[in-house]
Design brief:
223 residues, mainly alpha, 2 domains, 12 helices, 52% helix, 2% strand, globular
């Protein structure tokens, strides 16, 4: 499929209609960041690409209110339910981590569950917390942060300051980079929303919850 020659930018009025609860200061910043990110990775080359991108990033961030993974758990039972191969309620079972020790301690939790994977070092390295999920489509793990830094900046400043990915500019830019890195423009061009969700979320379980957001994007972002 040939790439259209036109380009499409979102406006503050459109974004306010799409996310009516966002304060205007956030709307202004998000419009600037989203348009720049979409332009860099050719997401702005068709209305459907824009609508897919805005629908998916909106869903992932709870309407652009959260750009960092929530690792605050308040009950040990929930930890065991989410990570049954990691945690136990039995303090004598040394094969697993004792769940009550990780309640309301997101840093310790991230360092444990993300250790020795996705380019991260051991628990003691602190990589799990340093490189936990951030961005409008969450980057997770030292390896993914490094790839983003290398391909977008090439100067190492994201690895030195990974919290920047939770800021608006890099939250949207990293999402657009992920979009491009995973060929999601092609999924949008094919109107393959379920397949796009599989790539972003790792499953299609949330497609029914995402479709109303896409419907709103389709009716809001019009040119």
């Amino acid at each position: 499929m040939s790439t259209p020659s036109a380009s499409y930018s979102i406006t503050q009025a459109q974004l306010s209609a799409f996310c009516p609860s966002l304060p205007q200061s956030t709307v202004q910043s998000l419009v600037t960041s989203a348009n720049a990110a979409m332009a860099r990775f050719q997401i702005n080359q068709s209305p459907r690409r824009v609508r897919y991108f805005m629908a998916q990033t909106s869903f992932e961030t709870e309407s652009y209110t959260s750009f960092s993974e929530d690792l605050m758990y308040t009950t040990p039972e929930r930890l065991v339910a989410v990570w049954p191969s990691r945690f136990t309620m039995d303090s004598s079972n040394t094969a697993y981590a004792y769940a009550p020790n990780y309640i309301e301690n997101p840093q310790a939790l991230a360092n444990l569950v993300y250790a020795d994977r996705d380019g991260n070092g051991a628990v003691s390295s602190g990589d799990g917390w340093a490189f936990h999920g951030r961005g409008a489509i969450q980057l997770t793990g030292r390896a993914e942060y490094t790839k983003y830094d290398n391909e977008v900046y090439g100067d190492g400043h994201i690895i030195a300051n990974p919290y920047l990915v939770a800021n608006m500019t890099d939250a949207m830019l990293s999402a657009a980079w992920f979009w491009n890195d995973n060929s999601l423009n092609a999924q949008a061009d094919a109107d393959a929303f379920t397949q796009a969700t599989q790539i972003i979320n790792g499953s299609t379980d949330t497609v029914p919850q995402r479709l109303p957001v896409l419907d709103l994007a389709n009716s809001t972002f019009t040119w």
